[in-house]
Amino acid sequence: MIINHDTLRDFAGRLVAAGGSSATEIGIVADHLVEANLRGHDSHGVGMLVAYVRDFEAGTLKPNQQPEIVSDTGTISVWDAHAGYGQVIARQAVEWAIGAAKTHGVAVNGLRNAHHIGRVGTYGEIAARAGMVSLHFVNVASGPPPVAPHRGKEGRFLTNPVCIAIPPTGNNPPILLDFATSRVAMGKVRVAHNAGKPMIDGALLDHDGRATTDPGVMYDEPGRRGVVLPFGEHKGSGLALICELLAGAIVGSPSVATMTPPERGIINGMLSIVIDPARLNNQDAMLAGIDEMVAWVKSAAPADPDLPVLIAGEPEQIARAERMANGIYVDETTWGQLAEIAQRYQIPVPN
Predict the structure, then answer these.
(1) Within a domain: residue 205?
(2) Which of the ends of the chain has fewer CB neighbours closer than 10 A, N or C?
(3) How would you classify residue 118: left for phi > 0, otherwise alpha for psi between -120 and 50, otherwise beta?
(4) Contact (CB, 8 A) for 146 and 158
């Protein structure tokens, strides 16, 4: 299926509406999901609605939740989302941190018990567009963990993403470093499995600890599931642990070690640190320094002439331009799953 982004956004909104969300919540969630597709991150796009519908039908995703402010010192706050839509409450939490950082120079928010917050880069972009530097560490508690630690062949983590964002300059858009600590996001394994395509080398082990490119090892035999490997061996494994601790034990959100029953749905914790860079350096000097460093990095001769040197955030910008112009690809399996849900709720399915 190749589908226009506006058509897909309307369809996604109708599916979210089936759970009883308000018009504002519908708009935020649908925009977030389709924007992930536009940025090339189909793992966090409309395909996630299959899990969202499962969870709001089971009562483990609670539409229209307002966050509980557990504590707020002015510069540090802790919020509990009570399984509300992560795309809505994580946005509110980061907007609070931006306002607090503008007043005090730096702010920290700990978000507990949010349902899936989606593409973490969204929150980095919001902070960057407000002129802020931001760092985000996320943990995931949603059933048996699929990511092995370094040297392991059993899952102990989920994909625990990290995001760091730098504000735009007159010459460059925001620099957005947003990545899973696993070799690939679990959603990308799902997308490959649904599309019948192999995974890249070095991403998966089967149940017996043998390297494989078959994404089916994560789905086809539940009792003999394989694992996703961390990126960079001990480096990704170490970062995954740090994300789990910062966004779990330290923030007070559930941990993968203690919350494994799948009937609990998807739960994310997030620790966000937002910094006003104007408190660290002269604004003009800072922006000039960013531009100089970006130009220096991009001046490197490419190893492959057909693959220019890119900086963090550029692949998403390229994907967005292409998909805005030509449409968003949704694999047949995912489209069939969404169509089945739509028919159940008597929602028209786009042709």
Answers:
(1) no
(2) C
(3) left
(4) yes
Half-sphere exposure of 181 (CA within 13 A, CB side): 29
The pLDDT score that the predictor gives to residue 190 is 87
Q: Look up the pTM and report it.
A: 0.94
Residues 52, 59 contacting (CB under 8 angstroms): no
Residues 6+ apart with CB under 8 A from 192: 198, 199, 215
Q: What pairs with residue 274 in β-bridges?
A: 107, 134
* Strand order, beta sheet including 211-212: 211-212, 204-205, 227-228
Residue 75 and residue 58 share a domain = no
Strand partners, 78: 71, 110
Residues 12 and 57 in one domain: yes
Q: How far apart are CA 133 and CA 128, in angstroms?
A: 6
**Residue 291: which H helix or E strand, with range?**
helix 283-298
d(CA 106, CA 277): 9
pLDDT at 89 over 90: yes
